[in-house]
Description:
Radius of gyration of chain B: 13 Å
Helix content of chain B: under 10%
Helix content of chain A: under 10%
Radius of gyration of chain A: 13 Å
Oligomer: heterodimer
Distance between the termini of chain A: 31 Å
Shape of chain B: globular
Order of helices and strands of chain B: EEEEEEEEEHEE
Amino acid sequence: DSGVTQTPKHLITATGQRVTLRCSPRSGDLSVYWYQQSLDQGLQFLIQYYNGEERAKGNILERFSAQQFPDLHSELNLSSLELGDSALYFCASSVAIQSGRGNTIYFGEGSWLTVV
Amino acid sequence: DQQVKQNSPSLSVQEGRISILNCDYTNSMFDYFLWYKKYPAEGPTFLISISSIKDKNEDGRFTVFLNKSAKHLSLHIVPSQPGDSAVYFCAASAIYNQGGKLIFGQGTELSVKP
């Protein structure tokens, strides 16, 4: 158990719909990261928040948005869903703002999203 | 643009032998590299890391080698055990230029046969 909690674990929804994925970081971690894993893309970095503020952005679509709340939990909002959005979405957390130098990033178990 | 590449999607090794997983990167700003291990239906688990100031880091059966001039790193597992069967991802980070994000390779599925 990494200490990173993600809900829901599985989600099936129709095209055009909107979903929200939730993440609670490890206790004491200020950084939250979102990754998408699809069959053909591997693990793709989406976005990072540090202590409530957006820190870095990756391959995140405009239809997707995220935020980190004062209690440090984070939500990833996916809207106007398409079939290609079906993937495993991981949340991760770390203590510091930057990975490396001993600042390990710990991953949750992921949220399976299936768009039908 | 795939900045981190794992060109072997799968690798099969006999129990007790050495497993060598390879990873290449293109971004010369990367200065920290990590290996994660992932079982089906679970999140990636941190395995071992190496800073660009080193060329080798060892932790038990796992050793990571970094060749900066070739922009190549490898993970050696010796001896390999059936429980090592999983997908291994290498990841890279450029601490000062790209913040905390990790760029992952595509993963290599290791199968260790008894």
